[in-house]
Specification:
40% of the residues lie in helices and 19% in strands. It is α+β, with helices and mostly antiparallel strands and 462 residues long.
Amino acid sequence: MTELATMEFHSQPQAGEPKPWAFPEPGRGSLDNGLTVLRCHRPGQQVVAVEVLLDAPLDAEPAGLDGVATIMARAFSEGTDKHSAEDFAAELERCGATLDAHADHPGVRLSLEVPASRLAKALGLLADALRAPAFADGEVERLVRNRLDEIPHELANPARRAAKELSKELFPAGTRMSRPRQGTEETVGAIDSGSVRAFYEKHVRPATATAVVVGDLTGLDLDALLGDTLGAWTGSAAEPRPVPPVTADDRGRVVIVDRPGAVQTQLLIGRTGSDRHDRVWPAQVLGTYCLGGTLTSRLDRVLREEKGYTYGVRAFGQVLRSAPDGTGAAMLAISGSVDTPNTGPALDDLWTVLRKLAAEGLTDAERDVAVQNLVGVAPLKYETAAAVASTLADQVEQHLPDDYQATLYRQLAATGTVEATAAVVNAFPVDRLVTVLVGDASQIKEPVEALGIGEVTVVAAE
């Protein structure tokens, strides 16, 4: 008779004690050329992230040349006084580095990622790009053509088209914020290498720039590396530009961007509100998350789960621009798409959610889930050096203290349900929202007018 084998059971592993976590606070210093440097040692992060912020905001672009900051940002990696565009790309590839750049309202940002063992080489290339960009005629012309090719695709994208219309509606005509960040066909078409170089020479200098370096810095003499590379970049000691105030018109109204035959309607509902300098920001973040930050939020529960109008609707707050004196603004918005026949009912239910929120408030359970999701997953969110560097760069860009993010998580955890409710209700008042709909006006105009959420205007899709 065969003896049956016995099975040995082991005890189930138990979770260990959670380790305390806080967003890292950087060290701060400067180079002899005036460049501000933030550094953050992250053991084990062998891919180092470097962010360089340039005080070249969009409102500094010359009249008629909207988009020149974007073309300049893209041209930084298209050759220097030492390397042609092809050679520069090859040198980056040899050291396993990536270099990206973009322009936005606060300024231009360059983002470098490279293995720690090749940081010296990559910093040299980054320094060359900042110190002596080629801005060759042919390369700038190519970048302009590429940008002109992108614009029709952006206008054909309902979400991008809605964002363009909301900016035009919210901000006064003539202000930079009312116009597309990367320019229009007319303004981009007027850009050449001369205008790019003129913008560079007027606004790009180390004295008004900041570099953020994050990663495993073990064994690296970062001071020497920075001094030999970014420290060789020279320029005048001009003062930072004054930041103009953000003004907006959030009278409740609806604009339909007509797309005949569209089977879906893109929704973008927004206004401007408090930025991160305001004491209400933590409560506003928490309340907005409860409203539309995840699949379990109120908007999704009604519009997606109960009614089946959409694949998802999100509410969010995005800082537009901040100033050293604490003034600034954020875009507070709700976005998503619904099928065309249900555009009216979906908006009706969305407004009902907002009114019910104002009347009844959030629940403690909603608040607790939001805190768990926002604070509890923060260590995972910042596992990479790039994520930490990007957030530190945001803090610099928005004139916030170096310990801001760490403080924010403590404030989120301490924010109560009543405070979160008041903040989100004030952020999304039902009578002060500008609603942009990209869809078939012949089908959606009448049911939207019947809702009484504001005067309805129809504009062509272009």
